[in-house]
Write a structure and sequence with these properties.
single chain, Protocatechuate 4,5-dioxygenase, Chain B, two-stranded parallel sheet, 8 helices, about 30% helix, about 20% strand
């Protein structure tokens, strides 16, 4: 089974940040809107969100997933938002083919805000099929990367692969007084990842895959759920190649001490 299209799709990692981005206009949401306008239109979207972080590999199976409002204490309009996309049976089948027995179809799994926060800005019409793949908490960066490599051929079939999380994300250490800044350790970690995956700078895949050893890791990614989608996308971007692909790094901004908004595009 194969979905054919003449245009290879990019791979995107979105630093999705606060749920307030659902209803605010800011530099990050402006970039998401720009990407939606400028990227080639995909046949379908495979979304790997930090908010579906389970100890297995699951793929949505419902034709019309419900909304999951997995955030608390935010303004009421956030809980009224809808993203009425449909899934794609063809894409679900292709994900299962590419990942084999490692992935199971999961019923009654809706779209979480890690998925629909960027999608509402990128593709507000919700007229492109979207399928979520869970991020496996039982694995490490090397395994996430390998799963992404297995998914890479979908790009030639018109599938846009998006990871949604944050390179730096430690809610337990947020400092509201640091509105537009981060702790030096968090900045160092974010920049080390960016340098390592950029073939024009650090060009050090091994360092990126062993993120635990990078400066600031223990504070910046004490809980790696929001980091995990990045490695799926890095693997999908690299595929079976033996060299890191060119990358565009967007909105390398910092908030509240322990949050980064850095996003990546591999074209």
């Amino acid at each position: 089974m194969s979905i054919q299209t003449p245009e290879t799709q990019p791979v995107v990692f979105i630093g999705h940040g606060s749920p307030m981005n659902l209803i605010e206009a800011n530099p990050w949401t402006t970039e998401w809107e720009r990407l939606g306008r400028e990227l080639p239109r995909p046949r379908a979207i495979l979304m790997i969100s930090a908010h579906w972080y389970t100890r297995d590999n699951g793929v949505q199976s419902d034709p019309q997933p419900a909304m999951i409002y997995d955030m608390y204490g935010f303004p009421p309009p956030i809980y009224e938002l809808q993203y009425p996309a449909a899934t794609s049976p063809d894409l679900i089948a292709r994900v299962q083919e590419r990942l084999g027995s490692e992935v199971a179809a999961i019923a009654n799994r809706g779209y979480d805000h890690g998925a629909y926060a960027p999608l509402l800005k990128m593709y507000p019409e919700a007229d492109i099929p979207v399928v979520q793949l869970s991020s496996n908490a039982a694995l490490d960066a090397r395994a996430w990367f390998a799963l992404g490599q297995n998914l890479a051929p979908l790009r030639q079939e018109g599938i846009l692969i998006i990871g949604s999380g944050n390179i730096v994300h430690n809610l337990r250490q947020l400092n509201m007084a640091m509105s537009n800044r981060a702790y030096p350790e968090c900045v160092a970690f974010d920049r080390a990842i960016a340098s390592a995956v950029d073939p024009q700078r650090g060009n050090d895949l091994a360092a990126a895959l062993h993120w635990e050893e990078l400066p600031g890791a223990s504070l910046a990614a004490a809980y790696p759920d929001h980091l995990s989608p990045f490695y799926y996308t890095l693997g999908a971007a690299m595929g079976s190649g033996d060299a890191l692909p060119a990358v565009e790094i967007l909105t390398q901004d910092y908030l509240m001490g322990t949050l980064s908004m850095t996003s990546y595009v591999w074209r």
